[in-house]
Specification:
Elements lengths: L2 H13 L21 H15 L14 H9 L7
Length: about 80
């Protein structure tokens, strides 16, 4: 897991999605963080823009952990190859 990306993700979750920082940890799932499907779409779009990668919100079901999300992001293709 890339610590810089993890820190960025944590910051985005707190600032943009108002997630309680105490609930953010690598094993926390999207549903643990109480992100609904619209928030997941917005999160993936935000991360796409921030990181210049192509993410599919369908690849991040509610049981996806933050660690898994970062693994998906690490393997994602660039937005503009």
């Amino acid at each position: 897991m890339t610590s810089t990306r993890y820190e960025h993700l944590s910051h985005r979750l707190v600032q943009k999605f108002h997630v309680d920082p105490a609930g953010i940890h690598p094993a926390a799932t999207i549903s643990d963080l109480e992100l609904d499907s619209l928030a997941v779409v917005e999160l993936t779009m935000t991360l796409q823009d921030d990181w210049g990668i192509s993410l599919d919100d369908a690849a991040t079901p509610p049981g996806t952990t933050l660690s898994q999300l970062l693994t998906i992001a690490d393997g994602a293709p660039p937005l503009n190859p």
